[in-house]
Every structure is written in C-alpha cells, then in structure tokens.
C-alpha cells in the first residue's frame, strides 16, 4: 500500500471546510443542514415581542456572537456554525448566508434587506456539476461595514474596514478599506475621507453643533 493510500481519507465535511471540492449529499452534511433549518424555522416563526427567544435561538445556531446583535426574520443559512458576528451587528429582513465555509463579520456592521452572502459555489463545467461537486471559500467582512440592500457577496471575498457596498451590487473581488463600491461587478467609486463626516446624505450636512444647542 502506498503512502498516499495509508493517509486517512477526509470526510466530505472536512473537504468542505478546507476549501476542497466535496459532495454535499452525504448523511453528515445533510443532517447538519436539517438541524440548521429546524432552528431557522423556529426563529422565523417567532412573534415580534419574543426578542429574548430570538436571541436564544440564534446563539444556538450561530458559531459565535457578541451580546449586542440583532437579525430581523426571516433569516436563512446552511449550517450556522460557520457564522461569526461581532458586537453591535444588525441585519434587516431576508438575510441569506450560505455558510459552507467560514463567514466572519466584524463589529458595528449594518446589513440591508435581501442581502445574500455566498461562500458556496459550483464548478463551471456541467459534468462536474452533474456529479454533485461543490466548493466553498470563506468570506471576511471587516468592522464598520454597511452592506446595502439586495447586494450579493460571492465566495472568497474579503471586505475591509469602514466599507460601504451600494444597493444591488455584486461583489466578486476583495474590497479595500475606507471605500464605497457599487455595480455588477462591484467597483470602487469613492474613497471615504474625514470630509465625509459632515454629510449624512450626499451634500446634506448633519449639523452636530445645532443639535448640541438644542439639548
């Protein structure tokens, strides 16, 4: 028996988590996705007043959370345990995270409605797809990031700190810190500077001094 044959054969889950091609239809992964669906179903059926119950369910579902986080239902994910969210995280309705690989989200991040975060992908050639081969690449989102409504984050993307992703954008490449990206595929359209502090929307000034006088 060769040295290669003597090595332990990786499970499909281990292949998935290591970024290799894998088959997602085995009993281990099917069972874990089913368990996640039970928890997301329970979460999505909660009443608006059941805030503590929602947080309790999400703490069971997600891999890591801080004390201050909030996700509006409905919410969907594949496994849950691959998702880590930082402090003061907020996600609006219809967030979808296909977390076949790690999804790490920093602190003070805002996620608009109908946002999709995909670590999962399929081969381009149909013959591999027809054999149920999939792959997963981790996604990292930095601190102070705002993902605009209906944007899509594709496998393997790293988004730097203080980034704004415009509504409807499709992010296929890494995004540098302190930038605004938009479009399909998303491109950098602006660098964020200290001058932007005074504007709450386009050229409309947020008059902090006036508000202080009113207090």
Automatic annotation (TrEMBL):
Transmembrane segments: none annotated. The keyword Acetylation does not apply. Residues 13-67 form the Maltose/galactoside acetyltransferase domain. InterPro entries: Hexapep, LacA-like, Mac_dom, Trimer_LpxA-like_sf. GO terms for molecular function: galactoside O-acetyltransferase activity. It comes from the Eukaryota. Belongs to the transferase hexapeptide repeat family. This is Acetyltransferase. It comes from Tieghemostelium lacteum (Slime mold).
């Amino acid at each position: 028996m060769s040295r290669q044959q003597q090595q332990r054969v990786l499970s499909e889950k281990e292949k998935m988590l290591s970024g290799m091609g894998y088959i997602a239809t085995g009993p281990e992964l099917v069972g874990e996705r089913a368990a996640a669906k039970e928890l997301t179903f329970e979460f999505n059926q909660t009443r608006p007043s059941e805030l503590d119950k929602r947080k309790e369910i999400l703490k069971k579902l997600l891999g890591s959370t801080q004390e201050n986080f909030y996700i509006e239902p409905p919410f969907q994910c594949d496994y849950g345990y691959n998702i880590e969210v930082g402090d003061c995280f907020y996600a609006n309705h219809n967030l979808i995270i296909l977390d076949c690989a790690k999804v790490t989200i920093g602190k003070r991040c805002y996620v608009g409605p109908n946002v999709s975060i995909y670590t999962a992908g399929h081969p381009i050639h149909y013959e591999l797809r027809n054999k149920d081969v999939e792959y997963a690449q981790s996604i990292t989102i930095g601190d102070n990031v705002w993902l605009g409504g209906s944007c899509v984050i594709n496998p393997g993307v790293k988004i730097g700190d203080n980034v704004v992703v415009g509504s409807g954008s499709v992010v296929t490449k890494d995004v540098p810190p302190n930038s605004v990206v938009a479009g399909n595929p998303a491109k950098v359209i602006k660098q964020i500077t200290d001058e932007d502090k005074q504007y709450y929307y386009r050229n409309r000034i947020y008059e902090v001094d006036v508000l202080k006088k009113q207090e």
